[in-house]
Amino acid sequence: MATVSKPPASFAITPHKLSICILVQVYAPPSQISVPFPFSSVSQHNSLGIFLISLTKACDGIFEPTVDELIDQLREIGGLLNHWLSDHLTRRLSSLSSPDDLFNFFADLRGILGGSDSNVMDDDQIMLDPNSNIGIFIRRCLLAFNQMSFEGICHLLTNIGSYCKESLSGYPPYEYSSNDPNVPSEFENMDMENFNYEKDSEDFEESSMEVGRIPYRGHASKVFSELDEDTNMSSSSRLGHIDRNAEVTSCAFSSSDISRSSDSSNGTFLHTNWQVQGYLSEQADAIEKRGSSFPHNAFESMLKNLQQLAPELHRVHYLNYLNSLHHDDYPSALENLHRYFDYSAGTEGIESGPPASGSSSFGRYEIALLCLGMMHFHLGHPKQALEVLTEAVRVSQQYSDDTCLAYTLAAISNLLSEVGISKTSGIIGSSYWPVAGMGTSLSVQQQLFVLLRRSLKRAEGLKLKRLVASIHLEIAKYEITHVQRPLLSFGPKASMKLRTSPANVYKELWLSSRLINEFGDESSVMTVDGAFCASWLNSLKKPTGSLIFTQENETRSNDAFQFSAQPSSIPGSVLQLLGSSYLVRASSWEMYGSAPLARMNALVYSTCFADSSSLSDAALAYSKLIQHMAVYKGYKDAFAALKIAEEKFMCVSKSRILILKLQLLHDCALHRGHLKLAQQFCNELGVLASSVTGVDMELKTEASLRNARTLLAANQYTQAAAVAHSLFCTCYKFNMQVKNATVLLLLAEIHKRSGNAVSGIPYALASLSFCQSFNLDLLKASATLILAELWLSLGSNHAKKALALLHSSFPMLLGHGGLELRSRAFITEAKCYLADPTFSVSDNPEMVLEPLRQASEELQLLECHELASEAFYLMAIVYDKMGQLDEREEAAYSFKKHITAYENPQDTGDSFFNILSSKS
Description:
Blueprint lengths: L14 H13 L14 H16 L9 H12 L3 H13 L4 H12 L22 H14 L3 H20 L15 H4 L12 H7 L65 H18 L5 H14 L5 H11 L4 H15 L20 H14 L3 H17 L3 H17 L25 H19 L2 H17 L20 H12 L20 H5 L33 H21 L2 H14 L6 H19 L1 H15 L6 H17 L2 H13 L9 H17 L3 H17 L3 H17 L3 H18 L2 H17 L5 H10 L1 H7 L2 H17 L10 H17 L2 H18 L2 H19 L7 H4 L6
């Protein structure tokens, strides 16, 4: 049987790979023991080894560093050996001037690998394990060299000469258009536009080396890979001229010649198909990470030129689709999505195995439906998304595509959890709805619970580890905000305790985070396109230990560079999932009322997962930290941090930072008595929400809640009660029970302020019931505080009962409450003592004065004039009863100052409201 000739391998020997081999010979010279020359310590030896591991993992990327860039990287880790390593590298490269030199070099290189008898060598002898990362790289180089033709070896020698000449001539590297110091150096040298667009596309097809389809993640799974470069591709006409007479070989298309040539007259080498596919995958990850801040027009122009050169690259349409999607261009996104699946037939869809045997011969229609449904979901079309995803379920079942079915069920679960849908009967057909046939009419939340469990079981059966981790995360979110109820009940004994279970929440979060253990072993990591450890090399130029809110233009000392603190080889999507679990932890602790734990988890996310997260998730973490500053330290620190965060996330449309800014300005305006400004901020907050029913429900309820509080501050009790009642009905309709606890508390506050305390008590008790069911400890303490104020409003006979209620909630209020909540508790305690007929102020004046002093100090940080005036008023009364006239006059003066500032607010032009000028 004749041997079938194989296409050229994708791994080709390049001058950069030869440089790595030379450094490997320095790291592991044969027949050397202990610490080899020229290393003086084990730490120096280990540093070079770690550096070589990163180089071997990044060797298959779409671009390679020049010899100057490699020497610069060596300078970061070489220390005293820098000059020796650099001289040795350049001298060894220059000595390779003939084919015999190359044959001798690779013959010597084979000697550094350990053989089958390597287990009997001395303990201190250095020998490369053939199965290690460096050993596999050396074996690949040996195999690639053995398969090279003589003509290919000659081309390699020519490339080595150009590689060394570029270093010796001092030719400046290609300058990237961005001035961002964090831009990776390898992206500075990449120019995808150096294709010769006048050359026939047939030449490109002949030179393309199709290694096999590289699967990429669809946006349906919402997984973002680690990518920290700033891609700002220019569409200007820097088109390289390709020598038509140059013969194209597998060596000529090596990745070392991707971005440029040392001399334009010598010609520019084409990219391999495999390298372009890797580049497009990286750009897809960058778009998903950066969202609307990704350069739209320039990247679209580059894709257009690439499509003209290589129309067989179907993924160009997918990149155009992603680019349009994240810039909210619905017509363009829909058109490019249709084009992509028209050309590719869904054969390059989400991470899945080969199509099932029952799949349609016309392509994988179910994957197209999945992407279309997620597009509608992203653009805020929940009904259309649910219809399309339900059709995807039917088609997946018809063609037995279990993997696509698992992703589709997870997408439907995510849709039902993120979007407020009161019922599904009028949206989708019941015949093929995933939970049809249950034998009972289930609510939307019960359907969501069934879907989550079914999706988890299916994903575990298919061993889709990242999908399993993502579903565990969704289940944790569900457990936080939903009380477990039986789907079917028979008789009175079928009832269960109607409370959420924090233990179940953190169990699901632990199961989700356990995915990181699958990538703990270095040998289990798969590198698809060689860009896996590119950020590892780039982090050599990044300082460690930087503060979260550090100015970007702040200069840093070179002493901050540390080679030892490099990121591990974990996929960016896994890091993104792990980081999301910390965001969920922070949100859960906020809800449960533990401010220190919420802040700690937000800090962990911002510190450890900022590079691997999307801008929207990073903005959410920053907003949690800033909100914590405002509540517990006052507005001065919060607005200072907000200014830094605005500069960082100013390019993100509808950012959490903008929402937080309006929230802080609204709170500050209410505390100072600027009711008109407060109403303006409230209206602007409501405008940010989508007009589609069920979309942006959290933002809509937040705007309505603040509108009611503004009306309450203006003493418009009837209008405030109407808004709060309407909000309660909306939250009940969309099953937002946690938000209802806050609305009921607001209704109790409205009745208390209006003088109808009796009517307010049922609302406070109902809120307490909600808080107990959902384990909202801090909100429960707040409800207890309002209940104590209501009892106190009924007369002095209830002062002791109010004081007992207040003291029962003191551990939570004083331990985890913010400045305003603590101050209200102190003021209420003083009022209870003063209203109690059995309490003598003259005997125990400090029992009243001490809490009032603490309240006044904390309220002045917030500049909450209304509560501050009340605290100083009570202090003046106590000093008057004690006969301390000077202290009484001082307290009375402070009372007059605060009450005047509240009733006649003046915009003093201070730093809090100067931020208005920069508001978009």
